[in-house]
Amino acid sequence: MHFLYTIDRNKFRAPAQQPLQLKDFSIGILIGAGAFATVKRAVHKESQFTVALKQYDKRHLSKDPNAQESLHKEILILSQVDHPNVMGLFEVIDTRMNVNLVMEMCNGKSLYHYIKKKESMRLPEDECRIIFRQIVSGIAYLHENNIVHRDLKLDNILVDPQDGHRVKIIDFGFSIKSAADQKLSLFCGTPHYMDPDISKKKDYNGHAADVWAMGVILFILVTGKLPFFGDFEQDLFRKIQGAKYVFPTSQQLKDQQNAMGSQRNIRSEEVVVSPECKNVIRKIFQAESSMRVTAKDLLEDPWVKGISAYSALSTTVQGGQGISDVSIASNL
What we know:
332 residues, Phosphorylase Kinase, domain 1, Transferase(Phosphotransferase), domain 1, 17% strand, globular, disordered C terminus
């Protein structure tokens, strides 16, 4: 395997300078690990700029063609994008043992881990709006550039509460170039976030599928519960295809947590979701993909635009304009 990608973000060097090498960085602590890669904090020695160094072990990659293809796709997609709500890729450094991705450093955590620590496992609606608008902004940008993500979920959204709830969309292993009217056939993604067409294993619109997944994320953020669930995949897909969902009460959530043996204290008042937020969810959860709202149109929705309601964060977010399914099922 040999990687020849070079992404110049002008963070570290002028274009005339030599490509970056690992020796240009002071490599620090491990901040994450997966089946094929580790992520370490690193500092560019000359500029003192902090980055995340994602290192893929070539020995492991060589045994899995699917992992190789996923990495290629992620590099190719990220090398073409530049948006404040999409994780930035600065450069790829190819060494004998590893493929090293020099990436933007984000001090946040996944949305899944963020809401998991909340007492009610949901967020105030104004906070949901701040986070959701940034997700929509990033996806609208990708769609405008004919890129679909195809695996949007809580795990693949990072949020940094210490930086105005700045959001970063990550993990582009299933991403692909696709026009707004193009149909795709690869069955991929995470079951609870799949749209009706994907769940039927039929050709689907990637743009509309991303929007559906954003609706699942929003529903979880405002209610602490999945909109569609089932004991078996067939049951789950049947509910997704029917596009029937119910906004729960906190008592229902408490009963659900007790049934699963959770000791978390959930207050028993009603889960209040504004009519405006419910309207956004309604426009997203249209079983017929051609009737579903687009990411671009969502940016103009009154509820999504109402950033001033969370005034402490509004300046930061405006400047950014431009879980596994089993884990969710067992914890929400």
